Amino acid sequence: MRMRLLAVSLSLFAMGATACAPTPPPPPAGPVVLSEGHVDAFGVAVEDGEFFVHIHDEENDVEYLPSQAILQAKPETETTVPAGPNFGFLGTPGSPVWVLPQTETPGVLYAGWASEEIAPGVLLGDVLNWNLISVSGPGSFAVYNTDGFGVPTVIFDSDNSLPQQTTFPAGAHVHGNWAFSAAGTYTINFSATGSLADSTPLDSGPKAFTFVVGPYPPA
User: Fold this and answer.
1) Among 39, 42, 83, which residue's Cα sits nearest to residue 62?
2) pLDDT at 29
3) Edge-to-edge strands of the sheet including 177-180?
4) What are phi and psi of 77, to 5 degrees?
5) How far does Cα 146 stand from its chain's mean position?
6) CA dist., res. 60 & res. 37, Å (int)
7) What's this model's pTM, rounded to 2 decimal places?
8) Residue 166 in contact with residue 184, Cβ under 8 Å?
9) Among 10-19, 71-80, 105-114, 130-139, where is mean pLDDT lowest?
10) Which pLDDT does position 5 carry in this prediction?
11) 8 A C-beta contact, residue 182 and residue 117
């Protein structure tokens, strides 16, 4: 059973507890830094008739609110923009770019997006929208997939006008490349929209996700 860290609370219950019972240590200050392993960087569920947007640490089966975790693209994710017009959205060929990769790579974050908690029939058409609302940071941000021939399909590109939207099915679990054109801290606002099966509209509202590109803490 996964743990869900939606709010920090501590309670003490012990049979025969006395006044001298030890005090539990305080919870760690600040957000958790996720820097390697499998994570759903944008997870969506439906709870109490509303979208619940979260980050799912698959390695430890823990869910965080976006404000409770930092997603890190470690220095090892730095590479260069490939040659060829298909990759022009990443910048000039040969220029630096930091990419959380579509395929699982030891030592770095394997980031995806998921709606696997949403059962068939909950949403109208069994689909939802993933929206990129805004990007604030030292460079550009993009999400893209590559096929078996290495040809990219762009999902989001912050160099184009915002907001942007893509659609994916309920019950999905997908991975892609998350690219940043400069090191530093990014605040990226995403939202989920759609409708329940009875046509009731759903809108999570903007949720701010923090990405640190390069070392943590950032220089």
Assistant:
1) 39
2) 59
3) 78-80, 96-100, 177-180, 141-146, 152-157
4) -85, -5
5) 19
6) 10
7) 0.87
8) no
9) 10-19
10) 52
11) no
Kindly indicate the confidence band of residue 15, based on its pLDDT and cuts at 50, 70 and 90: very low
φ/ψ of residue 33, rounded to 5: -100, 120
Specify whether the CB–CB gap between 132 and 140 falls below 8 A: no
Question: Exposure string (b/e) for 7-42, b if CB count within 10 Å is 16 or more?
Answer: eeeeeeeeeeeeeeeeeeeeeeeebeebbebbbbbb
Distance, in Å, from the CA atom of 87 to the CA atom of 125, rounded to the nearest integer, reads 33
Residues recorded for the chain? 219
Place of tokens 């012990």: 14
Tokens of residue 39, six digits: 């994570």
The amino acid at 48: D
Residue 16: pLDDT above 50?
no
Dihedrals φ, ψ of 179, to 5°?
Answer: -115, 145
Residue type, 195: S
